[in-house]
Design brief:
Layout: H1 2-41, E1 44-45, E2 55-56, H2 64-72, H3 76-105, H4 112-124, H5 127-137, H6 144-152, H7 166-173, H8 180-191, H9 195-203, H10 208-219, H11 221-236, H12 240-245, H13 255-265, H14 271-305
Helix pairs in contact: 1-14, 2-14, 3-8, 3-11, 3-13, 4-8, 8-11, 11-14, 13-14
Subcellular location: Cell membrane
Main location: membrane
Keywords: Cell membrane, Membrane, Transmembrane, Transmembrane helix, Transport
Length: 306
Amino acid sequence: MEITGKKQKLRKNAFILFFLLPTLVCFCVFYLYPIATVVISSFAKWDYTNLNDMQMYSFGHLFDNYKYIFEKYPYFWEGLRNSCIWALCGLVVQVPIATGVALVISKKCRGWKLARNIYVIPNIISSAAMGLIFLQLYNPKYGIINEIIRVFVPNFQDNVLFIPKVNMIALTCAYIFFAGTNMIMVLGQISAIPEEVREAALLDGAKGWTLDRCIVLPLIKDTIKTISILSVSAGFLLYNEVYFLTNGAAGTKSISFLIRELAVVSPRAQYARANAIGAIQILGGLVLILIINMLFRERKQKGGRR
């Protein structure tokens, strides 16, 4: 009997592995291999002088690309700071907005389907197209933003996208409120809560915000954690909005924008140095995900002690 049980377990594991194998192969070919290439090439000399012949640095010069990025490249710290700010905005602005909209729509008041569809529309449009739309909104001659500012400052003629610090707010507003995909994920999880749980809470006197705070939010915390990771990652990897709205001018460069600058725009095609920034970006993304996991784990422990 024991031998038969082991054989069944081996067959089950082999069956699972057989169906997972294509996914594992695709992951290794299209994700793991490129990531390994980025990290390895960041320790090499690879630019316009040896495009087809990447040469690894000797041990004493192994971190030359990173020294250049940290000490000599003038825009790295600006890009890292901005990317971290946008990641934080994703966590403290986009996630609460998506969750709040989902909670309101879940009440299924009159017109809730229309409101849901309208909120999702911006996520159907490509980020490049949305960038061009906001470029027109911020246009200093006929854009609606400048018209609103002129109500309070009649002689205002500047482009808000090129005013330091103000342009960061303007650029952030071009994407931060569009959380339709995250809202749909939260709304789906809310809809999956058993009706019996809601009825039991109502019998105990939980209504309105109390019901959402004590019953709904704890039950969907895993989905909130997921959209937090997605929002933070999207903010940290922000590129299209930067490219279409400011092209990195006036202190708005991001990490992703710098990679393009070094690898594509630079006449010297500094692939290895661009990959050094890419390796830092990968590490930064992992750190952000770890922080979010720690935040949600801490909340869970506190809830348990209560």
